[in-house]
Amino acid sequence: MEENPGIFAVLKEKCRQIHKALQGISGLKVVEETFSPAFHLQLEESSGAHEQDVRLLQEIVDQCMNKNITLTQACYLEKEVKCLPPPSIQVVVTVEQTEEELERAVSTIKEVAQVVLL
């Protein structure tokens, strides 16, 4: 397989852009570094109940899926993990995604989060 060092610069820039765009979503916060192509969205403030937080995030995932934006909720082996991280939505950026696709994903996540979290 031939390597293309420019592809990493493109991916890094897309990651930076999507991290920045998702920073402003009311009720959610971006977790991970800006150069990471896989990162998490968590609730800014927990409801205080793990199951309730999971339900809220799953509602965002489901509504985004209805609008053709595929997200997934992070899964952990609860019995095997000593310190369970807060529930989160996993977001993945790929080099193949176009600017338009990324912009549509961000606007859909913002729109859905506003409805679900208000």
Automatic annotation (TrEMBL):
Which InterPro entries is this protein grouped with? Answer: PyrdxlP-dep_Trfase
**SUPFAM superfamilies given in the database record:** PLP-dependent transferases
Per the record, the domain of life is Eukaryota
Its recorded name reads: Aminotransferase class I/classII domain-containing protein
Annotated source species = Aotus nancymaae
